[in-house]
Write a sequence for this structure.
């Protein structure tokens, strides 16, 4: 958050000098912000997403039973 506020403040200061200069500064600031985002979050689908939504090897498991079987035939229900 402090980085974002600093970048927005720098952009506001650039607008005080002129519109053309502000556009150039805005392009540089957007590039810096995107680079910071890549450093902070290098993988958009990290391990927490893989656990929540399943991974490339198969869907997420919510339990250890085969819920398509009737209750008396499920291996984990006693």
């Amino acid at each position: 958050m402090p980085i974002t506020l600093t970048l927005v403040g720098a952009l506001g200061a650039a607008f005080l000098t002129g519109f053309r200069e502000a556009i150039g500064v805005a392009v540089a600031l957007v590039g810096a912000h995107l680079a910071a985002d890549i450093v902070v979050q290098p993988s958009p689908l990290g391990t927490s997403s893989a656990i929540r939504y399943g991974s490339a090897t198969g869907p997420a498991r919510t339990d250890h039973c085969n819920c398509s079987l009737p209750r008396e035939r499920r291996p984990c229900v006693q």
